[in-house]
Amino acid sequence: MIADLALQGVQMALVLLLAPLLTGFVRTLKARLLRRRGPPLLQPYRDLWRLLGKEAIVADSASWLFRAAPYLVFAATWVAAALVPTYATGLIFSWSGDLIAITALLGLARFAQTLAGLDVGTSFGAIGTSRELMIASMAEPAMIMIAFIVSLVAGSTQLSAIAAVMLTYEIGLRVSLAMALIALIIVALAENARIPVDNPATHLELTMVHEAMVLEYSGRHLAMIDLASSVKLLLYASLLACLFAPLGLAPLGSGLAAHLVGLAAYGAKVTGIGVMLAVFETSIAKMRVFRVPGFLGAALMLGFLGTILLFVSRSL
Amino acid sequence: MTALALLGGCILALLGTAGLGALIAQRRGAGARVYGLCLAITAVATLAALASLAAPAEVAAYPIFMPGLGLHLRLDPLAAVFLVIVDLGAAGASLYALGYAAHEKEPRRVLPFYPAFLAAMNLVVLADDAYAFLFGWELMSLASWALVMAHHREAGNARAGYIYIVMASLGTLALIGGFGVLAAGAGGFASAGGGFDFAAMRAAHPGVAQGGIALALVLIGAGSKAGLAPLHVWLPLAHPAAPSHVSALMSGVMTKVAIYGFIRVVFDLLGPAEWWWAMPVLLLGGITAALGVLHALMERDLKRLLACSTIENIGIIFLALGLALAFRANAMPTAAALALTAGLFHAFNHMLFKSVLFFGAGAVLGATGLRDIERLGGLIHRMPVSSAAFLVASMAIAALPPLNGFASEWLLFQAIFISPELPQWGLKIMVPAVGTLLALAAALVAACFVRAYGILYLGRPRGPEAATARETDRYSLAAMIALCALAVLAGLLPGVVIDALAPAVHALAGARMPAQSGGAWLTLVPIADRNSSYNGLMIGLFLALVGLGSAALIHRLAGRRTRRARLWDCGYPGLGPTSQYSAASLSQPLRRVLGAVVFASSERVDMPDPGALRPAGIVKTIHDPAWEGLFAPIGIAVSYAAGKLNHLQFMTIRRYLGAVFVLLVALLLLVGVSG
User: Fold this and answer.
1) How many alpha carbons fall within 13 Å on the CB side of residue A190?
2) Can you give the residue ranges of every domain in chain B?
3) What is the pLDDT of residues A100-151, one digit of tens each?
């Protein structure tokens, strides 16, 4: 019991501590790929520290919701991340929410974030909210269809159980899973405001989505939102890793050695995903806003096709 | 006294209150007395229904109403579930109305009909013969029609009332036909009572063809009342036209009575199901869910927006019922129990949060006199309590954890996960398709309520009405807070609700979900531990802990210095409130992406010629496929036929006499040939 609790605690702390590092890693690597020197690897930590020390400036027209939203966004994202296995399956609290609950928790974070974008009453906040709602209305159903596919393959919607099933390699190669992988990559790019859907580095008003929503934030509130964004990126990386590359994941009740192997494998997998993300982002241009629905619609359709395939193949 | 007698007494007491309302409507304090009585009676009825949730079925017959048939009442677990929904919603609306009644200018148009409406809904749920059911159904339609017409001088309300009464008549007609088919199967006029009591229908199992016809007729009858596409067109017109507490009742409660009628006939009276019965129910449910929320996304009238979102929720409930039918037909009782529980749970949840949302809309209407969200904004500063209640209800309807809407939709998703076991190919293709529609609808609801809440309560006031609004009265706030608290509780402890629904589910599906309240940490386990589980309490606790903990930690360690300043807005802070996004611009991307497909929506810039003095603008056009594809052609056909038959009105007396003579001869010939 104590060991299980410790495992859960370690995993939650790990996600929180590692998240800015992944963001910084991708940023640095992207700069290097563009032959810039780029910021130091630990810059996101410094940014957070600096923001936390500053006073928060809140607009006159802001309500309590504006000040509460960053904490709710952070809480929902972190709780969702706590349900995703990182380096070991069989988390003690994984039964309290499944893949659908994780999707809905991220939806809760988005609900708070988009409302906060509208709270002050500026057109920039609202343009971000408006576009975010469009993106979410395609990405969220795609995510649920992905959940359908992996759950039908594994016979469970519980992420720890799915990862354990994937770990046994009894599934083999499946067309539906390949579709789910592509769809999940598309959804992950959109959800994390990455190129080609959104640009995390932009501050050109007309191209912003996520950055436009948080334009009015400063100080500790902005720090919470930035931290939540980093956690979300790591969450999707962990999700991709535990679903489609479960190699090295420490199974339930394994010893210290397996956990160390799991940690090393997790580090390698997240690094690999970070490298792929940086390479992908530098080699592709951002899309026009109204081409995004087509991009995400492809993910939704892949999810739908994969689900139908599984439904139909059940009787063969 | 038995629970059934008590509930029957409540119906009589409500009818008496209706009479009292007619007598004293013009006096001072009439509203307080009538609504106070309604609150007391429905509270008693709620308790009686709660007490009989797990009790065995209780029947009673009285020698009134139809000669030879009498009046049959029956209180079984299913009726008890829906009585809780009806009377809890009615109690909330009555409490709200205690304060809201002050806004009513013509109480005599509301007070007599409101208790009659409540009595009628109770009668429908308790009825155990077709006559009593249809009597209650028609009383419910007429009383609610009178309430829709309460403000008949406002623009559009008379048309709404007209369309509503036409659709209600169509629905009742279909139900009469449906009960006729069932009664014929139950022995017809050869048997005592004409086969019209439900016990006789339950005992007789109609054939495949008869069952199919009865299903189609009930789908039209109950579906038109519930707002199932394509018979939903009256709903966004009629529900908002009534006073707000009645809107809450019509959306939150009356649609559930229609769903009760569907479940009673299809799951109880029709007997064993055929698998293909599930197909139309699933298809219509999925389409309704997606279409309803798309309508809501385009709407700028707050109460119409809420009515459109009701359509969406009805679609979700019918989807669950369709799945339950499919599972039941394939002898998968535990899966059927899961789907049926999801449907009933969602019906209960929708009553809670939709009532709160309509109460909030009523509070805004009372404070500002406006329903158009484009002219409001910033009300969170002026109406802090009701805006908070509206926020909780919005999050619940958007199916966000840890609230109740998520718990019931989560159950429905779990039911979809086990549906690959269904053997029929039609269902194998249909279920993933409607599952996609459900996922799309679930995501769009969140967008819809971010838009509604953001434009209505957040931002800066867009007009003088919003800038000077005042918080609503205590009674209204009490009703909103009470129902919100129930919504939160049902979300944190879904197992309690599921166990309360279990007897009704067991009676209809042949099995029940595993008992939930005994599990560790009150975790929800619909099938087995290894398949899926969800713990609303734990998620809620974690969210609260992390949110409050991080806020406290940061305030302690990093300081809580906060400075109020002018908004920044990328360096252009001087722009006025009109520069904010409007509701139309907020949903423009979605209108362009999805509306262009479903509603053939288009927008073009209307630029005046050089020198012209009118302003430029954007012209938006939206086409409603149900209205233009189904109802408009029928309307054109009816008026064409009426035009052609018009000359029959202007014939001479000789021709009329001749026509009567020809008809007489024809009838005699018919009798002669068939006799």
Assistant:
1) 33
2) 282-533, 625-674
3) 999 999 999 999 999 999 999 888 899 999 999 999 999 999 999 999 999 9
Report the predicted TM-score, pTM, of the whole model to 2 decimal places: 0.95
AA letter at B665: V
Residue of B nearest to A148 (CA): B417
Exposure on the CB side of residue B42, measured as CA atoms within 13 A: 33
Which pair of tokens denotes residue A105?
Answer: 């928790």
Q: Is A253 left (phi over 0), alpha (psi -120 to 50) or beta?
A: left
Look up tokens 């190699």; give the residue. A247
**Does position B518 have pLDDT exceeding 70, yes or no?**
no
Residues 113-142 of B with CB under 8 A from A: none
Backbone torsion region of residue A248, taken as left when φ is above 0, otherwise alpha when ψ lies between -120 and 50, otherwise beta: left
Q: How confident is the model at residue B346 (pLDDT cuts 50, 70, 90)?
A: very high
Element (H, E) at B618: strand B617-621
Q: Give the Cα separation of B125 and B264 in Å (integer).
A: 9
Cα distances (Å, whole numbers) of residue B74 to B49, B186, B410: 12, 19, 32
CA B29 to chain centre: 31
Pull the structure tokens for residue A37.
């020197």
pLDDT above 80 for A156: yes
| Ramachandran assignment for A255, one of left (phi > 0), alpha (psi -120 to 50 degrees), beta (any other) | beta
Are B55 and B80 a contacting pair, CB within 8 Å? yes
Do B115 and B17 contact (CB within 8 A), yes or no? yes
Contact A215, A122 (CB under 8 A): yes
- Which residues on neighbouring strands pair with residue B301, listed in sequence order? B372
Structural domain spans, chain A: 2-313
Helix (H, G, I), strand (E, B) or coil at B534: strand
Considering only residues 363 to 402 of chain B, which have any Cβ-Cβ distance to chain A shorter than 8 Å? 377-378, 380-381, 391, 395, 398-401
> Is B531 in Cβ contact with A59 (below 8 Å)?
no
> H/E element holding A245?
none
In DSSP terms, B605 is beta-bridged to B618
Among all residues of chain B, which has the CA nearest to that of A102? B401
Nearest-by-CA chain B residue for A157: B532
Question: What number is the ipTM of this complex?
Answer: 0.96
DSSP B273: P
